[in-house]
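thought: fold this chain, then report.
action: predict
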Amino acid sequence: MKSRKYKNTAAFVFKLWQREVSEEQISEKEAEILNQWNLRTEKDLDEFHMKEAKERILSELELYFKPIQGTHIYPFKKYAYTMAAAVVLLLSLGGILTYHAFFKPDTYTAGSGNRKVYLADGSVVTLLKGAELTVDKSFPASTRIVDLKGDAVFSVAKSKTHPFIVRADGFSTKVLGTIFKVSQSGKDKSVQLYEGKVAVSYAGAPVSYLKPNQKWTNFGIAHTAAVISLTPENKSGKQNIKLLSLSFNDVSFKEVAEVMQANYKIRIVYPKETAEKKITADFTGGTADENMEALAFILGLEVHKEDQIYTLK
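observation:
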């Protein structure tokens, strides 16, 4: 039988049921559509409740298929199961449509270029190339929460009572109303603030609070957090970069030394056996000399400085 296009889902399902009862063959196209529905149903709907619904519908339908005296019960059983399957399929389709319409989160993706997303609370998100934003149907709720993959710039509508939270890969940014940029590249995570205030939470590190022209970063290292000042210079227009705070929680000294060397423009010489030793330390302000003295104390070593070279013994 030639394949047909069915605009009405219910009519299509009952048409298939009639064919099943009459044992008329279903076309390949119709079989393919049924298979796709079945896969989608199994994915989106709870298996336990589906089983419960089938049993409940079957028990109700069997009342209408009492065999006439002298007839065999099994054909009626077969039709009852067939009708139950059709009804369950209709309920499943309705559940899927309801889920997609009222519960499934909205997903926005930036392809080869940037994309602006206008949220219901008035906030504007500029997704950078390849980024993906997921927003629940309940947004905006008492707490405005979105999920981000990749990089994006947020211009958040101000609200003193409804915090705005961006959940990214392993860290989150909480604000009440501000403009900031979230960047994620492999293990490297950062949040740069342009206006307002934000709080950045990262597993294994204390919460960091940013002011305008400040940046939070983990330097691509787990359990590491830093706040950097990015003050533009008046004449050259270049940014004056200054490390304001640095935190390590159970991080190998080798990785700590790499961060210290890169940010203080120094060189650290240390015994090989200390490379994998775990360090937990918080540095707020302080010079390279002061922080190196603190590191040496933690390791139980002495530090000697010559020019910009620090030797731990």
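thought: worth noting. The chain has six helices and 19 strands.
final: tokens above.
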